[in-house]
Amino acid sequence: MVGIALLTGAVACFATLDTTTRFVSTGVPLLMALWFRYAFQALSTTLVVFPLRGVGVLRTANPRYHALRGVLLMSATMLAFVSLKYTPVAEFTAIIMISPIVITLVSAFSLGEAVSPLRWTLVMGGFAGTLMIVRPQSDNFNWALLLPIALVGLNVWFQLLTSKMARTEDPMTTHLYTGWVGTLMATCLLPFVWTPIDSLALWGGLGLMGLMGTVGHFMLILAYQRASAVTLTPYLYGQIGFAMLGGWLVFSHIPDGWSLAGISMIALCGALSAWLTGWETRQRQLHRASP
After folding, report:
1. Phi-psi category of residue 54: left, alpha or beta, with phi > 0 → left and psi -120 to 50 → alpha
2. Do 67 and 181 touch, CB atoms closer than 8 A?
3. Could you tell me which residues come within 8 angstroms of residue 224 by beta carbon, excluding any fewer than 6 positions away?
4. Sign of torsion, CA 6 183 30 100?
5. Could you tell me which of 24, 108, 211, 288 has the fewest CB atoms within 10 Å of its CB?
């Protein structure tokens, strides 16, 4: 229950981060907002981790993997920021939430496992929900809705690399390096986009972005320390509800009927896919334990 509560808090933070990003992007260059988000996370993580773990937390046998993970997350975050500038928060969140379904499918193929008809049905249902949101042949088609779909590809690559690194790397080491790689990349570009900010609301939004990103990731780490991924994954889809609430409160945006149907289908197929993964895992464990 503690793990589920922490995960719920994490996805609420991420939905707040996305909503605030959409607000800030109206008055601040995206690269500048990206730098604030990463710098806040890198500095706060360093101030928390170093007194507890010392310089030993920096030891790693795979510096190239950390660099690649940082580049992937930086690229994904930048694409997310661009997407949120042109896409409603609820629709954006729902589309990127097909990532766990795709990751499960890719992992099954990479391990040479057979994919059940039910799994294929859930995958196709998730993609059908995405098409209901995007509606490529509709008169209301918005090209920006294709950006979150591209983001799903980056997220899958990022998550698979993270899963591989989790077998040998300390989560705090990974979190620290990822934050600093993104900060250094954004710092190199910052002089070209720096713009004076006169609005207190925008300064507050930038600070809130950094705070929500940092707190959300820490809560996510703590959640996975207290409960298994199989238990927690269905609750990730609560982020869609928080995103819809944020879009309504801040931008007075309510998805139309087709978008609501697509959002519901993605959430349902994603939650059922997570339940199916848990059931299959338990069956394999029972099979190994039986004489």
Report:
1. left
2. yes
3. 3, 232
4. negative
5. 288
Count Cβ atoms within 10 A of the Cβ of residue 18 and give its class: 0-12 exposed, 13-18 middle, 19 or more buried: buried
Q: Please state, in angstroms and rounded to a whole number, the distance separating the CA atoms of residues 33 and 28.
A: 6
Rounded to the nearest 5 percent, the helix, strand and coil shares of the chain are: 85, 0, 15
CB 130 within 8 A of CB 27: no
Query: Structure tokens of 152?
Result: 């799903």
Buried b (16+ CB within 10 A) or exposed e, 227-249: beeebbbbbbbbbbbbbbbbbee
Place of tokens 């609560």: 238
Give the mean pLDDT of 263-285.
79
Query: What percent of the chain is modeled with pLDDT above 90?
Result: 2
pTM, to two decimals:
0.74
pLDDT in tens, 38-88: 888 888 888 888 888 888 888 888 888 889 988 888 888 888 888 888 888
Give me the pLDDT at residue 16, please: 92
- Return d(Cα 125, Cα 215) in angstroms, integer: 33
Which class for 219: exposed (0-12), middle (13-18), buried (19 or more C-beta within 10 A)? buried
* pLDDT value of position 229: 66
Give the residue extent of every domain in the chain.
2-289
The conformation of residue 29, written as its DSSP 8-state character, comes to -
Encode 171-194: b = buried (16+ Cβ within 10 Å), e = exposed. Answer: ebbbbbbbbbbbbebbeeebeeee
Which of 147-161, 188-202, 276-290 comes out lowest in average pLDDT? Answer: 276-290
Per DSSP, the residues of 241-274 read: HHHHHHHHHHH-----HHHHHHHHHHHHHHHHHH
- 164, 196, 177: which is closest to 71 by C-alpha? 177
Structure tokens at 184: 């250094």
Answer whether 74's CB lies under 8 Å from 15's CB. Answer: no
Q: How high is the mean pLDDT of the chain?
A: 81
